[in-house]
Amino acid sequence: MKKKRKLIIIGVGIFILFLIIIFVVSSPKQTIKRETKLESRDLRMEFRVAGGVTSRNMIPIKSPIPGRIEKILVNEGDAVKKGQIIFWISSTERAAMIDAARAVGEAEFKRWQGIYKPTPIVAPMNGFIIRREKEPGQTITQAEAVLRMSDDLIVSVNIDETDFRYIKIGDKVKMFLDAYPNQYFEGIIEHVSYDSANINNVIVYEVRIKPLKKPEVFRSGMTATTIITADSKNEALSVPNVFITDKDGKKTVMVKMGNTRNPEFKIREVKTGISDGKYTEILSGLKPDEVVVSLNQKTKGKNKSLVTKK
Questions:
Q1: 33-42: per-residue pLDDT in tens?
Q2: Do 146 and 72 touch, CB atoms closer than 8 A?
Q3: Domains of the chain listed by start with CATH number
Q4: In the chain, what percentage of residues exceed pLDDT 70?
Q5: What is the DSSP pairing of strand 153-160 with strand 39-55?
């Protein structure tokens, strides 16, 4: 009987040991996928807005009299000064008289050219020619533009009203042309519209940006993308966004507690600040020497997730 009882006890012990092994093997293991600590970084919160290159002021140059264009002295891209003669036009009467004199002979033609001179048309402002719409010899009316002038090329974008608070006159922005995505240039906000527009049921405001140094390839009508800094902070204590969980409006991180060989993991609620899309500033809830982790599996047993505030 003693021998039989001993065998039963041994058998029960082996069975219990077997159950323990099965439980340990089948239980989900807590393995750390990644870990980090608070790190000081310079953060920039930016957003992109598509816009276009346009003239700050564009003026069509027309003739005050109907007639025939005799000579155009400028081409597209030429810089001109206010008061500079840019083309000559003969009135309808002069054109008819000159043509009649030409039919009589060269001497008569030259005589009437000296007596009845064409009318000069001058540039109304400093700027450059962005379009040449007519050519010498064409007859025009007073309503037709011969040339189009621009005082300067700027970038115009429409800012959603929800981002309006980030826009200030004098702020610098970074831009690139969609045709040249690897060539960045800086600009400065020079005007913010006081009147809104409704585009696709979205209230927007026009913002004009003056390039500090215009690219040689700058052309009116080009698509430009602006990168506007909404907020920035230097040396902000932050962690990568992948360690932060947002649930029910609360931001939490998983903190490693205890010793290295047998750590515990607890969910800690934190208060966050500025984010650049990759890293987020931690304002409170985490100490610089604490380790934040992401786990391969959810915690169980004594390490069950527990939200704590600090």
A1: 788 999 999 9
A2: yes
A3: 30-43+235-309 (2.40.420.20), 46-55+153-233 (2.40.30.170), 63-149 (2.40.50.100)
A4: 85
A5: antiparallel
